[in-house]
């Protein structure tokens, strides 16, 4: 069973993880969106994901090996809060603001949601089941803790890189490092567990 993990942004981190293999065998990288507006960038990211999927081949048969499941960090639903209430975006309360950090601005929120939509569209077209996961959830699965008092975005990025180094995973940047631990957390997703049980039956 091959799990793909994605950390969506204009530099989307990706990782391929086989739960039956050693962590050091995890492969990762980044897909860079290009273009002048959100839609162009989303389209280029979609094309990049198609190319990535087509490149993942069996070395003996050259047959394309698609992931059995994908997990994507959930995009933020809101860019600001009002009156001390939990911020909302598209009618949903935001639960994933980083402790000690800030919820993204409108431009970042829209961009990340566009990139996430592009990933979901391609995964759907390839019939690859997927699930989105909150940052606090995948971090707890990967690190043993989902929040840390005083930590901001750079601290979480450093944690991902250091965890990759300990596991001997070759991750060349923050985005690919976080994608590794998103993929790792995928084995705990309900959708993946159901898929795994169905295949074992």
Structural account:
It is a single chain. With 201 residues, the protein is α/β, with parallel strands linked by helices. The protein is built from six helices and seven strands, in the order E-E-E-H-E-E-E-H-E-H-H-H-H. It has helices at 38-55, 106-125, 135-143, 153-166, 174-186, 190-200; strands at residues 3-7, 11-17, 27-32, 69-73, 88-89, 92-93, 130-133. A hairpin with a 2-residue loop joins strand 5 (88-89) and strand 6 (92-93). Helix 1 (38-55) packs parallel to helix 2, helix 3 (135-143) packs across helix 5 (174-186) and helix 4 crosses helix 5. It is globular. The two termini are 14 Å apart.
The helicity comes to 40-55%
Largest sheet: 5 strands, mixed
Strand percentage, roughly? 15-25%
- Main β-sheet, spatial strand arrangement: 3-2-1-4-7
- State mean pLDDT (0 to 100 scale): 87
- N-to-C series of helices and strands: EEEHEEEHEHHHH
The gross shape turns out to be: globular
Can you count the helices? 6
Structural class: alpha/beta
Strands, count: 7
Task: Report Rg.
Answer: 17 Å
**Low-confidence parts lasting 5 or more residues at pLDDT below 50?**
94-103
Determine the N-to-C terminus distance. 14 Å
């Amino acid at each position: 069973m091959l799990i793909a993990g994605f950390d969506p942004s204009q530099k989307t981190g990706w990782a391929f993880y086989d739960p039956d293999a050693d962590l050091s065998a995890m492969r990762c990288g980044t897909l860079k969106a290009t273009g002048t507006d959100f839609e162009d960038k989303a389209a280029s990211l979609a094309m990049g994901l198609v190319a990535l999927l087509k490149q993942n081949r069996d070395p003996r048969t050259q047959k394309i090996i698609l992931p059995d499941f994908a997990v994507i960090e959930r995009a933020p639903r809101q860019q600001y809060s009002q009156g001390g209430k939990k911020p909302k975006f598209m009618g949903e309360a935001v639960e994933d603001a980083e402790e000690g950090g800030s919820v993204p601005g409108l431009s970042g929120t829209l961009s990340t949601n566009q990139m996430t939509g592009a990933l979901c569209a391609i995964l759907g077209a390839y019939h690859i089941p997927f699930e989105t996961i909150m940052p606090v959830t995948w971090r707890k699965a990967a690190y043993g803790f989902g929040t840390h008092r005083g930590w901001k975005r750079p601290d979480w990025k450093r944690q991902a890189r250091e965890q990759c180094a300990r596991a001997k995973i070759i991750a060349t940047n923050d985005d690919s490092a976080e994608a590794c631990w998103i993929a790792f957390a995928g084995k705990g997703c309900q959708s993946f567990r159901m898929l795994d049980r169905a295949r074992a039956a």
